[in-house]
Amino acid sequence: MIQLKNIQKYFFKDDPREIHALQDINLTLEDGEFSLMSGPSGCGKTTLLNVIGALDTVDSGSIYFDGEDITKLSEDERTTLRLEKMGFVFQAYNLVPVLTVEENIGFIMRLRGFDKNSIAKRVREVAGILEIENKLSFLPNKLSGGQQQRVAVARAVASKPKIILADEPTANLDSKNSYKLITMMRELNEKEGMTVVFASHDSLVEESVRRIIRLNDGKLVD
Ligand SMILES: Nc1ncnc2c1ncn2[C@@H]1O[C@H](COP(=O)(O)OP(=O)(O)OP(=O)(O)O)[C@@H](O)[C@H]1O
Ligand SMILES: [Mg+2]
How many separate domains does the chain show? Predict the structure, then answer.
């Protein structure tokens, strides 16, 4: 479970350009949720996702990750937390171009020191769910955009993080590929119990999630 308590986040604090990007956010994300952060451009979706993912810091407030306040962690501890507990999917697929699909999917597991056999087994398992098992020996540039994004999802979920944070994952995909991606992510959520939180404008995502967290102007509205 992740609990945000009175989160305040500014950009350009004490400067004429100051932006109060997150304004007293109180939010609980339960284990196994499949949720969407929604709201107009600039309302703070990415900022909120980034502070939950320990990619960015807050100005005040606490974020409890299974009871531990992650706003108190050092830079190194946050890096470890991200590696061990979180999975990220972004609009740009961010695959390593010189590694095969198989190596890309296994990348985080390798960093975390899983042994070769368990990596190979798990890579095949997630590649099967995401229907890219016949692409494992290819380099990413030989795949379509939709397939590349499914590789990015496979990489994010392979090491079984507690939470997947997905920022506009369908922004570069057509509706058919978007639908496929969301359906497969929901399947992974149901099968493996991983919490998934999207930030997105996509109505396909909106129709697929179980909970919508609405933001406006840095504030939680619903
Ligand atoms: N690194 C940054 N430096 C300065 N201002 C920032 C930074 N990141 C975001 N902002 C500002 O904070 C506010 C929230 O931005 P954010 O990117 O979280 O919005 P968003 O809801 O994700 O928008 P979009 O739907 O366009 O992706 C905006 O006013 C934005 O300009
Ligand atoms: Mg954004």
Answer: 1
Range of the domain at 47: 2-220
Please give all residues whose beta carbon lies within 6 A of any atom in ligand 1, as ranges. Answer: 11, 19, 21, 39, 41-47, 199
Give the mutation target among 14, 23, 47, 200 for probing the ligand 1 site: most ligand atoms within 8 A of CB. 47
Closest ligand, as measured to the CA of 50 = 1
For residues 186 and 209, give the distance between their C-alpha atoms in angstroms, rounded to a whole number.
8
Does the pTM of the predicted model rise above 0.85? yes
Report the alpha-carbon distance of residue 51 to residue 96 in Å, rounded. Answer: 25
Contact between 145 and 117 under an 8 Å Cβ cutoff? The reply is no
Mean pLDDT per 10-residue segment, the chain (222 residues): 97 95 98 97 97 97 96 96 96 95 98 97 96 97 96 96 96 93 95 95 94 97 82
What's the CATH code of the domain at 180?
3.40.50.300
